[in-house]
Design brief:
69 residues; mainly alpha
Length: 69
Amino acid sequence: MIRQTCLIGVERGRFPVNQIVEFGRSLLSYGVVMLVAVALMGIAIAIGITLAKKKNAKKALQEEESSDE
């Protein structure tokens, strides 16, 4: 007897629960890694902007003091 298969090669009548669970776990793992990476990038950008603002403010204050003399 010939087995009927779906387009993805899984036997008809069987639901590949194990494969779906494994796929979900790997998807969740990669999602968590991506969230951590995005969070770290956001923190780095925020620190960079803060440091640039402080540097510009300090430079402007120094220029203002030198022009007053």
